[in-house]
Amino acid sequence: MQRVAEPAGRAGVRKAVDCVAGPVGAQVSQALAPGAELMVYGALSTYRQTNPAALPIPLQARSLIYETKTVRGFWLNRWFGTASPDIVRRAPARVRDLVADEVLSIPQGRPFPLARFAEAVALAEAPAHGAEPLFVFGDGRAEDDG
């Protein structure tokens, strides 16, 4: 929690996004300033999880009540169904602009030709694997093939 809270200074972290959920999501929630908002858009902690006790985000009731923190979910598929067609059409350009202005950054993927599918899947399933596998189509060569 200290690594999350320190860079924000005295004002604290006002907004956070979480794609892991579970105990990690709880730690993110605890690091937030009073009145802050946590948006949960994924549950990577539940990947291949069969133990129902491991699925919840264990939140502190006092954080929600006395510190008036807010937790809300976001599911892109639902957003597509509820947002106006005009907003949906404008969204990719807005994201592109945010990346161009360096407000958002897109992590670089690790290119794999389709012929190395099994290796790419093994990398994706490895813990702390770094860059995500990215299938490339074309001459069949990946960046690290030489």
From TrEMBL:
Matching entries from InterPro entries are given as:
NAD(P)-bd_dom_sf
Q: Which domain of life is it from?
A: Bacteria
Return the protein name. Answer: Uncharacterized protein
Organism, as annotated: Streptomyces filipinensis
What does the organism's lineage look like at the top?
Bacteria, Bacillati, Actinomycetota, Actinomycetes, Kitasatosporales
